[in-house]
Amino acid sequence: MKQIYILRHAKSSWDNTKLSDFERPLSKRGINDAVKLGKFILANKIRVSNVICSNARRTKDTFDLISKDLDFSIEKVTYTDNLYYGEPYKIIEMIKNLDEKDLSVLIVGHNPTLHMLIEKLTNKFIHKFATCNLANITSKKTWKDTSFGSCELKSLTKPKEIKIEKYQN
User: Fold this and answer.
1) To the nearest 10°, the Cα dihedral for 24, 86, 66, 146?
2) Whole-prediction pTM value?
3) Rounded CA gap, 5 and 69, in Å?
4) Confidence at 84, pLDDT banded by 50, 70, 90
5) Exposed/middle/buried for 29, CB within 10 Å: 0-12, 13-18, 19+?
6) Could you read off the pLDDT of 19-34 as tens digits, one per residue?
7) Residue 168 scores a pLDDT above 60
8) What is the torsion angle, in degrees rounded to the nearest 10, for the CA atoms of residue 61, residue 91, residue 156 and residue 133?
9) Residues 152-165: tens digit of each pLDDT
10) Which residues, in sequence order, are CB contacts of 2 under 8 Å at separation 6+?
C-alpha cells in the first residue's frame, strides 16, 4: 500500500509587508504548530521515502521544523515551483513519476492547490485544509496508476487537536 502525506505549510507572518509572498517566513504560531506536528509525527512513527516541497520560504521552514522528527534528510528533498503555482494534475504527474520502491511521499505546499488535490485524489469533501494540517492518504495502486478518485483519506491531523504528552527522563 502506498502512503501520500499532504502537508500545508504552517502559518506565515505578515509582519514585513515589503517581503514578497514567496519570501514570507513563519509566524510564532506557525513555528509552534510545526513543532507540535513534528512531535505528532515522531509519536506516530510516520516515515516517508520521498519529500516534494514548494520552493517558498514558509514551506521550506515548515519542513525544516518537522524533518528531524520525520527522520528525513533535508538534502534529499525535491524542491519545486510546481507546488507554489501548481495545479492538482501537475502534482499527480509528480506522484506518477515516483520510484515504485518508494512506499510513501510527503508533499509540502499551499492552498488552494493542496485542498483541491486531497478532494480530487479521494473524491471526499473536506471542509477546510488549514495551515499545518497533515492529510494521510492511502492507495492500493502503483504510483503510475495514481489518479483522481483512486485513493482513500485515512486521516486529517490539525495542530490544535494534537495532544502532546510530556515525558519525564
Assistant:
1) 170
2) 0.94
3) 15
4) confident
5) middle
6) 888 899 999 999 999 9
7) no
8) 20
9) 999 999 999 998 76
10) 103, 104, 138, 139, 140, 141, 142, 143, 146
The per-residue b/e assignment along 124-135, b for 16 or more CB within 10 angstroms, e otherwise, is eeeeebebbbbb
Alpha-carbon distance 41 to 68, whole Å? Answer: 10
How many Å apart are CA 8 and CA 108, to the nearest integer? Answer: 6
| Amino acid at the residue 61 | D
**Amino acid letter for position 12:** S
Cell digits of residue 133 = 494540517
Q: Can you give the chain as a three-state secondary structure string? A: CEEEEEEECCCECCCCCCCCHHHCCECHHHHHHHHHHHHHHHHCCCCCCEEEEECCHHHHHHHHHHHHHHCCCHHHCEEEHHHCCCCHHHHHHHHHCCCCCCCEEEEEECCCHHHHHHHHHHCCCCCCCCCCCEEEEEECCCHHHCCCCCCEEEEEECHHHCCCCCCCC
Which of these, 144, 139, 49, lies nearest to 102 by C-alpha position? 49
96: cell is: 506518477
Cβ contacts of 119 within 8 Å, gap of 6 or more: 125, 126
